[in-house]
Design goal:
elongated; 0% strand; 159 residues; 8 helices; mainly alpha
Length: 159
């Protein structure tokens, strides 16, 4: 009995179940998301009811320019090996894995600090090559860039 008496005294000291802190917290939990969504929406755009593009706050060219600026800022914030990996993956999609592997080797030769990341980039290229070309065709592009990391990436994606 003494234990339950201490428990109820402790609850009363902290405000119990319906204390003012809990009520304020619940109110904020309901109101704050709504305020944040509304303020964010109003800060980003304004509806152009007139149909005149000169009255528009945000045009399509502004959106593409803003997207490009954001992409450049994101690339600047990325580590050099991440930027290289993304470039090579794009190159693999646009050309073929052989071109991407040649450029990986050239990048590592030109910037030796990338050598520690060469194997992980080559494995990523191997996995992407399997997704694009299938395991046997992807394996045909394998070469001894960063040891056999490309081949192990092909094997990992296939197996």
């Amino acid at each position: 009995m003494k234990h339950s008496a201490n428990h109820s005294t402790t609850q009363r000291a902290r405000g119990g179940r319906g204390g003012p802190a809990r009520r304020i917290g619940r109110s904020l939990a309901l109101v704050l998301p709504v305020v944040m969504v509304l303020s964010g929406t109003l800060a980003v755009t304004r509806v152009n009811w007139s149909g005149d593009p000169s009255d528009s706050v945000l045009t399509a060219s502004d959106v593409s320019t803003a997207h490009q600026a954001a992409q450049h800022a994101a690339d600047a914030a990325k580590a050099p090996q991440d930027v290289l990996r993304d470039q090579l993956l794009t190159e693999l999609q646009e050309k073929d894995p052989g071109v991407a592997l040649t450029h990986l080797q050239a990048a590592v030769n030109g910037k030796p600090s990338l050598a520690g990341h060469c194997a992980s980039i080559a494995r990523a290229l191997g996995r992407a090559a399997v997704r694009m070309y299938g395991p046997s065709r992807a394996q045909s592009y394998a070469r001894p860039v960063c040891d056999t990391a490309f081949a192990s990436g092909v094997l990992a994606a296939h197996g």
